[in-house]
Amino acid sequence: MTDQSFVIIGDGDAGATAAKQLASKTEDSDIKVLTDESEPLYNRIMLKNYMKGTLPKKFTRVHDEDWYKDRDIDLHLETKVTDVDLDEKAVKTENEEEFRYDKLLVASGGSPRKLPFDNGYENVNYMWTMKNAEHISNSVEDSEKAVVVGGGLLGIDLAVAYAENDCETYYLIRESNWWSRGLDQKGAEIIHRKLEQKGVNIMTQTECTDFETEGDNVSAAVLGSGDRIECDAVAVAIGQTPNSEFVDVEKNEHNMIKTDKFLQTSDKDVYAAGNMVEYYSPVFERRTVNGSWDHSGEMGKYAAENMLNKGKAFNYVNTYGVGHFDVQFLSIGDFTGEPIQRKYGEDEYRRLFFDGDRLVGAVMIGYTKGQEKIKDLIQEKKQFENREKLLKKSFWE
Ligand SMILES: Cc1cc2nc3c(=O)[nH]c(=O)nc-3n(C[C@H](O)[C@H](O)[C@H](O)COP(=O)(O)OP(=O)(O)OC[C@H]3O[C@@H](n4cnc5c(N)ncnc54)[C@H](O)[C@@H]3O)c2cc1C
After folding, report:
1. Sign of the four-CA dihedral 343, 344, 348, 352
2. Does the C-beta of 291 come closer than 6 Å to ligand 1?
3. For residue 336, is pLDDT > 60?
4. Is 334 close to ligand 1, i.e. is its CB under 6 Å away?
């Protein structure tokens, strides 16, 4: 039991889960959640189906305002935090409100990184919030020719959204294949083929270097080669920048807030959780950054426990799935180790990552058997002298 004041910045999965955990573990504490968005928690993953037009907006809702009231959580919508006074332990907002805290959680995630030559054109779309999804959902059906920029996990959602709405879609990937962070050409070939079957024109090793414009709109994307693609819509997913400028705790060179394994920042009363937070992972025995729905939720839960002084190290293994195709894509853990890979059939592929003899990560396409076992092996820090045996299907049967 505690009667402390907790302030949480951000009502994404990390912030809302932390609030829920604090509410369930305390009786008289004051819990405030501040968000600059105009609605309570919705499922960001489902935004991809909403923007495609295959899911009505109402099914993206996770919590309504009563959910917070029922738990005595004080939710402040449309409340943008502009400053944290660490000495006074006070959070200040754009509306000139001030909220005092005993413990603060920063769960403010990141915002889409913009192309440097984007001067705010009307038909250039970024994808993170409900507002972004609404904009795409309202315009995608009328778009006839779109250019999608960014060969990562979100870029693929945008390419599929336009292609599935019968829009001629050009998907520009700067690297030699999609998600080069974790996939080689052999694995990516399956995803490229599946995208092409949906009508996406994939252009690898292709960079968008400028726009041609007409009034407030982009009329063509200019490529590094000098070629141009005429278009009436552009969608961009080239990463995120952290929403961390309002708090002066220790950060890495990319402005991501740094924490220890308990998700505590350089200020003992400030914790951080969710996307764009660099933390020490006891599982991988190094500092890392991860972004996914489940990962953020778990981080929020652990941060809340630690704000209540439970001393719980965050030892979660991240997963991320892509479900647009008739084959499942799934990534687990860490992709910085040394990879080995095998293709089993036209649509089945597995890549495993090792740190020395230790399994640290996996990427699977089509053949996803053993995913829980992989997570366990990573958690248990299992060593394998004979790595190749892990590529045999018999190992996972
Ligand atoms: C289209 C799409 C598809 C995705 N697909 C998948 C998927 O298949 N699988 C998967 O695991 N993950 C997926 N993700 C990623 C996943 O949704 C995120 O990793 C997760 O939601 C991040 O949660 P979070 O709480 O850390 O951050 P966020 O959800 O970004 O929450 C941070 C909140 O803080 C608010 N905020 C920021 N600054 C301030 C401020 N100054 N004051 C007040 N509030 C502020 C923001 O507006 C936001 O509401 C997808 C995301 C998108 C957009």
Report:
1. negative
2. yes
3. yes
4. no
By C-alpha distance, which of 250, 6, 263, 234 is closest to 125?
234
Which residues have C-beta within 8 Å of that of residue 18, sequence separation ≥ 6? 8, 105, 107, 273, 300, 301, 303, 304, 307
What are the structural domains, with CATH classification, of the chain? 5-110+240-307 (3.50.50.60), 114-236 (3.50.50.60), 327-396 (3.30.390.30)
**CB distance 36 to ligand 1 below 6 Å:** yes
8 Å CB contact between 106 and 112: no
Query: 35 and 77 in contact (C-beta within 8 Å)?
Result: yes
d(CA 103, CA 87): 12
* Rounded Cα–Cα distance for residues 5 and 314 (Å): 23
Ligand 1 pocket, residue 242 CB under 6 Å: no
Backbone angles phi, psi at 240, to 5 degrees: -125, 155
pTM here is 0.96
Q: How confident is the model at residue 55 (pLDDT cuts 50, 70, 90)?
A: very high
Joined together, the tokens standing for residue 266 give 């350089």
Residue nearest to atom 15 of ligand 1 (CA): 292
Q: For 47-69, give the DSSP string.
A: HHHHHHTSS-GGGGB---HHHHH
pLDDT tens track for 19-45: 999 999 999 899 999 999 999 999 999
